Amino acid sequence: MSLVIAEGLTKTYRAGDVEVPAIKGADFVIAPASFVAFVGPSGSGKSTLLNMIGCLDHPTAGKLSVLGTDIATLDRRAAADFRGKNIGFIFQDFNLVPVLTAYENIEYPLIMVQEWPAAKRREQVMRLLKAVGMESQADKRPDQMSGGQKQRVAVARALVSNAKMVLADEPTANLDHDTAHHVIDLMKQMRDEFGTTFIFSTHDPKIMAEAETTYTLEDGHVLSRVHHAQAAHA
Question: How far apart are the C-alpha atoms of 92 and 95, rounded to whole Å?
C-alpha cells in the first residue's frame, strides 16, 4: 500500500483579489519506509507540498491521500490529531524549545499530543536518545549543543511518537558538510530500524544522492521522477 498518493493535486493562494497558484496538478506516489526528496528552485512549491502532506494545509483541488486518509476531509482538530499520531517534522533551524533539555524536547510531543503515562514516556524518550547517540547529553539545553547535536535531538523528537513518516524541510541547511553527512546517515539508520518514511524538501546534493526517489519541481509542476535503485536499502 502506498503511504502518500497525489492525483491532480493543486494549491492556489489568494492575495487580495489575485490568485497565486503554488502547485499545479501534481501527481506522485510515496512508498512506506522510503527516502524521498522534492527538489527544485526556491518558489517551486516544495514547502507547499510538504505542508499539504503534513496536513498543515488543504489542497484547492485534486486528491491527496496520506496513510489511506483523504486529508481534504479533515477539519482543523482532526488534522492536528492525525499529525500528532502519524507525522513528525524536522526543520532547518531545529525548532527546539530553548528552555528545555534534550530529554524534555524529545518528550514534549508525547505530553502535548499523546496521552502516554510517565513511565512509558521515559522508556520511549530514553530509547530515542540512545538511538540518536545523545544519551549522555540528555540534560543539556539547546544553547549547550552543537548544530549536529541539535539536529539529532530533532530527529529523535520527530520519531518519538512512533511517526510513520517524517517531513524534513531543508534539514541540513545549517550544518557543515561532515555533520550533514552524519545526520543523513542517522536518518537512514532510523528509517531502517523503525520503517519510517522520510520526505525531504531540499537543495542539498548530499540528500539528493541518498534519496531513493527524487521528484523535481518547477513553477508548481512535478517535472520528473527519478528512482535511484542504488540508494535503496536492503
Answer: 8
User: Domain range spanning residue 169?
Assistant: 4-231
Angstrom distance (rounded) from CA 200 to CA 115: 29
Q: In angstroms, what CA-CA distances link 89 with 84, 120, 155, 187?
A: 10, 22, 8, 12
What pLDDT band is residue 15 in, cutting at 50, 70 and 90?
confident
> What residues pair up with 155 in beta bridges, in sequence order?
none
- Residues in contact with 33: Cβ distance below 8 Å, sequence separation at least 6, in sequence order: 191, 195, 196, 197, 233
The enclosing domain of 98 has a CATH number of 3.40.50.300
* Complete edge-to-edge strand list for the sheet that includes strand 69-70: 18-30, 4-15, 61-66, 69-70
Per the structure, the count of domains in the chain is: 1
Judge contact between 30 and 222, C-beta under 8 A: no
pLDDT of 177 higher than 70: yes
pLDDT tens per residue across span 63-116: 999 999 999 999 999 999 899 889 999 988 899 999 999 999 999 999 877 678
